[in-house]
Design a protein that fits this description.
This protein has 7 helices and 12 strands. By secondary structure, the chain is an alpha+beta fold.
Amino acid sequence: MSQVLYQLNDDNLAFPAVSCALAEPNGLLAVGGDLQPKRLINAYSQGIFPWFSENDPLMWWSPDPRAIIKLNDLRINRTLRKAIKKTPYKITLNTAFERVIKHCADAPFRHDDTWIVPEMQEAYTQLHQLGYAHSIEVWQEYPATDKSPSTQALVGGLYGIAINGFFSGESMFYSTPNASKFALVALAKLLTSIGADFIDCQLLNPFLQDIGAIEISRHDFVALKEAAITKVTTDSFWQPREIFINEDQNSIK
């Protein structure tokens, strides 16, 4: 059976059914359109996300299989568990979104062209301002000395889109050991507190697989996504604040 690649209309925010996505390249559903907030929110509500490189057309995806992390299966190894007990970092929610997305775009471990092009950064910053895009920040704190006041540096973090209890992770970065894993653990604890079951990781990679990500069918993913969207959060849930992941600090505050 022949497959059709859909061309989106700038004036129509509708997407084809995710079952219409191509098998090769896996999950490519449509091209065109724009990154206006209403279209992005509509896309993520259906489990669709944009992914393209600079100078490429705007492409929309719904891959099969789909990568997720079941929150109960997040893998925290002994080294990370020891690091968490030492609380080497300060972790915050939604206090430096624009800095996080820029660090993700410029992460030094990326060896290919980033898909977090300026157009994407601007669009997701708009979503952040509207309350749909969120960041977790990891800070290294440096105590005051006789010559300088105390300071803190942004050393890790992640960002993604939340539609109620459905969180679709977009990217993460780190510049010190385990910093991105601290952000992920904080996000998992945050989502667990509202009864969420998983984090959408979109596509599997070795890092995600190492911390417990698995692949499930698109059909199963859509069912999980629909259930997650029914978990309505309070107005204050995503308010900027500090997050504690050490059990001795009573987890999340």
